[in-house]
Design brief:
Elements lengths: L4 H10 L2 H6 L5 E3 L2 E4 L11 E4 L4 E4 L5 E2 L1 H9 L3 H12 L11 H26 L4 H8 L4 H7 L2 E3 L5 H8 L4 H7 L2 E4 L2 E4 L4 E7 L5 E8 L7 E3 L15 H4 L6 E5 L2 H9 L5 E3 L7 H10 L2 E5 L4 H16 L3 E4 L8 H18 L2 E2 H8 L9 H16 L4 H15 L3 H32 L7 H4 L1 H16 L4 H7 L8 H16 L14 H12 L8 H12 L15 H14 L1
Parallel strand pairs: 12-13, 12-14, 14-15
Antiparallel strand pairs: 1-2, 2-3, 3-4, 4-5, 6-9, 7-8, 9-10, 10-11, 15-16
Helix pairs in contact: 3-4, 5-9, 11-14, 12-13, 16-17, 16-18, 20-22, 20-24
Length: about 575
């Protein structure tokens, strides 16, 4: 979509990247910029920087980067024009309409329509359809009519084509139903995905139906099936009932294991409950939860699978900076059964007395051991040291060391020494991995610009030329008199240079936002990384000419060999770059 320079300027001015970024994650000032834990990958040490001067961001850990539009695209899972509209609405601006014909946008819009009609079809069929098994099932689970309405629960007829025929009658095409994920195709034609199942619509934060979960109530088949990824739905980026939980006054979330657990807990008066969507908790979901809560109470099933899922959730939530607690349910396998047996008040007390996640991990260290025996006691203490050494807070480590010391009658000094020793070993291991990653970055495939591995000298020269051009748009005519995109060796840098030159020639105020519509999020990260990794480098006009000479003199004869030994100077430069990244 061709947006005017004036509108792009106003959009950026009204949406400072530090303000927008800061509404999703905690920013800490570092000089004139800000640092934070990257919202796009799990980490404990901040590696993402938000630059106020260029109104951009870049993560040195995962390579995510771009401007405020790129950020909103990624964090909200939107396309370019949707992100622009999102930011415009945030700033009270009106997006100029000029017959934007985006296939992806139309596809999303159509999918939303189909999902809405599908949810209505299932809901009406549950309440007034001839087959009453779905309604009987929900009644057997003690769901109230207002709860069924609140969640829009439904029933999919035990038919291969009931939904398909209904949607056809509304004018939808089979191909559109398949794209939306409510139908599939076979040699015999288009057929319904969900059949003979009670249905759980999945709703996003804007109130749109984005997917469905279906539970079988009789016959054979998988207990649950869930929508596949579609233009409006990604399992790893959404949470069931977050549309309700986000409105809760509490800054705590209850993480349950399934749809029925969530609905039962919500009906019991706890609005702040959510669940994953047929998959184990993902890093993306943990980061989303960190935006709405600073504490998560894990209420998974008490079986072995539930305990394993709890352990994984603790690690992911800790990595996202969220405090975790665990509820221990006795005489019930899950929250649904617990509430039915003991009532809402007892469940509230269970939540209030939920245990610290670290205490949960420490208790697990005893599993299978008899610590009255010396050999088992040693194994137990080694496990304990491993858990405590993973804690970042020294005060927290000290508290648990003191507790274990009293429990095992082991001197605190000895425990502390072992913990410190383990921490140092882990740090050394991380440093070794960093150097391995350095070698890997030099020697392995670059997905965005694969030619850079073959021609590192030329690629670096191209990046300097691109960077010089971005920083000196007034010298575009001079630059183009010396070199053109056709002189570039790597295809990606050639495309970027062409885009930058075109944007500068057509704009009075060039910024990364002029490229957001043309490049993918990963490509924008790569482009932004060129500037971020070279912020301390001053590229003078003489350097520009040297880089141009490198490309002009390129004969295509030298190809980088991954077995080539790096010189001391090369290693020193790489080491300096790593320090700068910190």
């Amino acid at each position: 979509m061709a947006l005017s320079d004036d509108f792009i300027y106003r959009l950026r001015a009204e949406n400072p990247i530090e303000d927008v970024f800061g509404s999703y994650t905690l920013l800490r000032r570092q000089g004139s910029n800000f640092k934070c834990l990257c919202p796009f990958h799990s980490e404990r040490t901040p590696s993402c920087t938000v630059y106020r001067d260029t109104q951009s961001f870049y993560c040195f850990g995962c390579g995510a980067g771009g401007d405020v539009i790129t950020f909103i695209k990624r964090i909200e899972n939107l396309n370019y024009i949707e992100a622009v509209r999102f930011l415009a609405e945030r700033a009270g601006l009106t997006v100029p309409e000029n017959n934007y014909n985006d296939k992806t946008l139309k596809e999303k819009s159509k999918t939303f329509e189909i999902n809405r009609e599908t949810a209505n079809f299932y809901y009406k069929n549950l309440l007034s359809g001839e087959d009453k098994r779905g309604l009987a099932y929900f009644k057997s689970r003690n769901l109230l009519p207002q709860t069924i309405k609140k969640y829009g629960l439904g029933y999919a007829p035990d038919s291969w084509n009931a939904l398909r025929d209904h949607l056809r009658s509304l004018g939808f095409k089979d191909s559109e139903m398949i794209t939306a994920g409510v139908c599939r195709s076979s040699q015999k034609g288009c057929y319904d995905v969900f059949r003979g199942r009670v249905m759980f619509p999945i709703i996003d934060l804007r109130g749109n139906v984005i997917a469905f979960g279906g539970r079988i109530i009789s016959g054979e088949g998988a207990k649950y099936i869930n929508s596949s990824d579609t233009p409006v739905f990604k399992k790893s980026r959404n949470l069931f009932s977050l549309n309700h939980a986000k409105n809760a006054a509490s800054k705590k979330l209850i993480l349950a294991e399934g749809y029925m657990d969530v609905i039962t807990i919500n009906q019991a008066g706890f609005e702040n409950v959510i669940a994953t969507l047929g998959t184990a908790l993902t890093p993306e979901q943990a980061r989303i939860m960190s935006q709405y809560a600073n504490e998560v109470i894990i209420a998974y099933d008490s079986d072995i699978a539930g305990q394993e899922a709890t352990q994984k959730a603790i690690n992911l939530l800790n990595a996202a900076g969220v405090t975790t607690k665990i509820i221990k349910m006795e005489s019930a396998k899950d929250p649904d059964e617990y509430i039915k047996k003991f009532g809402n008040t007892r469940f509230k007390l269970l939540l209030e007395n939920s245990g610290d996640a670290i205490a949960f991990e420490l208790e697990k260290c005893k599993n299978g051991l008899d610590i009255s025996k010396e050999e088992d006691k040693v194994v137990y203490l080694r496990k304990i040291v491993s858990v405590i050494s993973a804690l970042d807070d020294p005060l927290q480590r000290s508290v648990y060391i003191s507790k274990i010391s009293k429990e095992t009658d082991i001197n605190t000094g000895i425990l502390n020494t072992q913990v410190e020793y383990t921490i140092k070993n882990k740090q050394q291991t991380r440093k070794k991995m960093e150097w391995k990653n350095i070698e890997s970055s030099v020697n392995t495939h670059d997905e965005i610009n694969p030619d850079s591995v073959k021609y590192p000298r030329e690629s670096k020269s191209e990046e300097f030329i691109i960077l010089y051009t971005c920083k000196n748009p007034d010298k575009l005519e001079l630059i183009l008199s010396k070199i053109t995109a056709d002189d570039f060796v790597t295809d990606f840098n050639k495309k970027v240079f062409s885009s930058v030159c075109k944007a500068i020639s057509q704009s009075d105020s060039f910024s990364l936002s002029h490229l957001s519509d043309e490049y993918t999020d990963a490509e924008m990260g790569k482009i932004c990384g060129i500037e971020a990794k070279n912020r301390e480098t001053t590229i003078k006009e003489e350097t520009l000419y040297d880089c141009i000479d490198v490309l002009k003199n390129f004969k295509g004869s030298f190809v980088y060999n991954k077995d080539t030994e790096l010189s001391d100077d090369d290693l020193l430069k790489i080491q300096t770059q790593m320090k700068n990244k910190k």
